[in-house]
Every structure is written in C-alpha cells, then in structure tokens.
Design a protein that fits this description.
This protein is α/β, with parallel strands linked by helices. Helix 11 links the parallel strand 13 and strand 14.
Length: 418
C-alpha cells in the first residue's frame, strides 16, 4: 500500500508536449518525452499496419505485435448514419446515471500508454452490462486499441459489446466535453452541448467540437447550451433536481445570481430545482463529481474532510445537503465517504482524489481506488449502501495524476425508448 506522501513524482496523463515552454526547457523535455509519450504519433498518426505494430511494440503494449498480425484486424466501427446535423430537440430531461444505458462513451487514452490498462479495466467492467463506444481519431488507432484489448484478453465473450466511433479529439476527459444526454417530453433521445473552454496552454478545440460531430454521426439531436460548463460539474437525479458548484457562476458572469442561472437553464432543460455547492479548495476543475454521488434521488454520498484544507468547504457541502430537499421535497439520506489526502505531483500539480468520481451503469458501480489506506473503507460504504449493485473497484492511482478518475473519463448514452 502506498504511503500518503504529500509530494510525489508520478506519470502525468496530460499532453505536456503540446504546451509552450521557454526554448531551453522545451528542448530538455523533448529529450525525455519519447520514453513516456508517443509524441511523434501525435504529429504523424499511424497510416499503416507497420506503424500500428511499431507503436504497440515501442510502448510495450503488445511486444509481439507485427505488421502481419495488425493487417488481419477488422475493428467493429460504427459508420455515420448521415452527414447532416439533426434538428434541435425540444427541452431535454437529463438522465440520472441509474437509468438504463445503451452504452458508455470513452475517448481512448492513445497518448498515455501507462493508463491503457486503466481504460481496459473500465471496458472489461462495463461490457457485461452495456456497450462501450470508443472514440478514436482514425481507423488505424481503432486497430491498435482492438488489438490490445483482444490480445490481452480484456474482452472475452463480450467482445461484441465494444464498438469504435471515428471522431478526432484532443484528450480523454469526455465527461467534460462530451454530449449531455437525456429525453424530450415524448421520450425521444437527445441532449445538450455546452461550451467547453480549453486551457490556454493546451489546444482542445477538437474536444469542444466532439459533441456536434457525434450528433451528426449518430443523428442524435443536441441543443446548444450557451453556458461555459464541463459535464463533471453538472449532475442530476433525473427527477427534477440539478446540482453544480459555484464555479459555474464564476465561469458565466452574465448570470448575476443563481436565480438568473436557473431561469436560463429552465429554457433548455426540464427540471425543477437547482442546488449549488461550493467547490473544493486547491483543486483545478471545481467539479461537483469530486464532492457528491447520487445512489438514488434521496440518497447522496458525500466526500468528507481529510485535512484542514478540505474541512470548511466540505463541511459547507454537508450542511447544504442536511438542510436541503430534492425537487420532490424529500430530505436527503447522507452517506459519508472518506477523502484521501491532497498531494502535489511534481510540486506544481495539486491532486485531489475522490471516491464519488464513480460510474453507475446498468446495475454496476465502478468505484475508483488509489492505493490509499482509505480504499477499503470507501468500497465497504458502497457495498453497504448501494444494495443490488455490483461494486467494482478500479485502480486509478496513475490516471488521477491527470486530474480525474472513472466518472471524468466516461459519458452515458441512454437507451432509445420504444
């Protein structure tokens, strides 16, 4: 078990090579990058079976990969339904995670070989109960991922549940930029597309464009949401209550008050009540999925303090849920989850870990663990209170250095209702 050191020097799943640095620093870093990141393939993606095999061997993903073995692979790719953009849907009710899902979207961690195993663990945990639609930039990357998943034995009898969609993206955090989906009043599937603000030092324009590309590919209508917000900062119980943090108001100064924000949201989303909490301190995203997870419309799991840095904000979140009700007027049953202590990766990256950053999918809950002494406590809390669910721990101790865990790397696609 890893000791809880406040300073670490761990692998960073983020496209550091795309940043602007002073020339001397950039030259030094570029000498180190090839051993950790496939920088060359970012600028020159694979265009042949030989390229794919070279990539898989170079990063020890499939040491035995050959051009001939890749040549015979035909990954299951979902073709585009049409080339047009579907019409805007009417007002949308976003779904709760415990509603029936057709699939889970994942943008594959192509440029982070050290977390391919994390994504593969997530796929293996999901496919017994739902499809996984893997987003990749081109068919050659689909071949690489399919070869890895099949040769490493991650799929088994459920291989038919994995499908690929060819859409260029910039990074893995599809929770934040992906389509937010639900149903209109007639039960038709649709969703909304918010404004995804890329960081000034990381180009992420393709991430912001991904929902509309997916909408055209699948002919699923999306309503534009004139709101700067990431998907990790908007949760719902699907029964009339939305949840976000104060970051949403800060990022959208056009709304002077929470009432103004709520009035705008009512024009696009079908809900009755908005609950706004503070955000975590010393944490970059400001997202609510670090603070809470709903098990049902009356039961909420809340992160609890582990140090003085957490206490004030998390106590305030606890106080809100003790005094608030959901949209139907029901008080909340609160389950406390431990919070592993804050640490700094490479001195400058504050890393927050949360057990609420979990994914519910068709009777299963994938719960992140971090090789922390609090992992067992968190898993027991889920097992004790999420009755009827299979609780599946997923080791996110490396992936978290990119700023997120399971919830951040996935996006739900609800079933098409008959």
């Amino acid at each position: 078990m890893t000791r809880e050191f406040p300073l670490r020097f761990g692998y960073i799943p983020y496209p550091l090579w795309r940043r602007s640095y002073p020339v001397g620093i950039k030259q030094a870093l570029y000498a180190l990058y090839p051993a950790l990141y496939p920088v060359r393939y970012d600028h020159h993606p694979p265009s042949s079976s030989a390229d794919v095999a070279d990539f898989l061997r170079r990063f020890a993903l499939l040491p035995s990969a050959t051009s001939a073995s890749i040549e015979g692979i035909t990954p299951p790719i979902i073709p585009p339904v049409a080339s047009s953009q579907p019409a805007y849907p009417p007002k949308i009710r976003l779904i709760a995670q415990w509603e029936h899902l057709e699939a889970v979207l994942m943008s594959w961690c192509i440029f982070y070989p050290r977390i391919w195993s994390l994504h593969a663990d997530m796929v293996r945990a999901i496919i017994p109960v739902a499809q996984v639609h893997v987003i990749v930039p081109n068919e050659w990357w689909a071949r690489a991922v399919w070869a890895y998943l099949t040769e490493q034995g991650h799929l088994g009898a459920n291989a038919h549940q994995v499908k690929f969609i060819i859409i260029p993206t910039d990074d893995v955090w599809i929770r934040d930029y992906g389509p937010m989906l639900g149903y209109d009043a007639d039960g038709r599937r649709g969703g909304v597309k918010a404004v995804y603000d890329h960081l000034p030092y990381y180009p992420q324009g393709r991430d912001n464009a991904m929902p509309l590309a997916w909408s055209a590919h699948t002919q699923t209508p999306l309503m534009p949401l004139d709101l700067h917000i990431e998907g990790g900062n908007l949760l719902t119980d699907g029964m009339g209550t939305l949840f976000t943090t104060q970051k949403t108001l800060v990022a959208n100064p056009q709304f002077a008050t929470s009432a103004d924000l709520q009035a705008y949201l009512h024009a696009v989303l079908d809900f009755d009540k908005l609950i706004i909490t503070p955000r975590m301190r010393i944490e970059r995203t400001g997202h609510i999925d670090l603070l809470m997870k709903l098990l049902d419309e009356k039961t909420v799991m809340l992160s609890t303090p582990s140090s003085k840095w957490d206490t004030a904000r998390l106590d305030e979140v606890m106080s809100i849920f003790k005094s608030q009700t959901n949209a139907k007027g029901d008080p909340y049953h609160i389950i406390e989850l431990p919070t592993p202590p804050l640490y700094f990766n490479w001195v400058v990256y504050p890393i927050r870990r949360s057990y609420t950053n979990a994914l519910t999918v068709n009777g299963r809950i994938l719960v992140p663990i971090y090789q922390s002494k609090t992992d067992d406590i968190a898993i027991r809390r889920y097992e004790d209170h999420a009755k009827g669910y299979d609780i599946i721990p997923i080791d996110c101790s490396v992936g978290i250095n990119g700023g997120g865990a399971i919830h951040c790397m996935t996006r739900e696609v609800p079933i098409i209702q008959s």
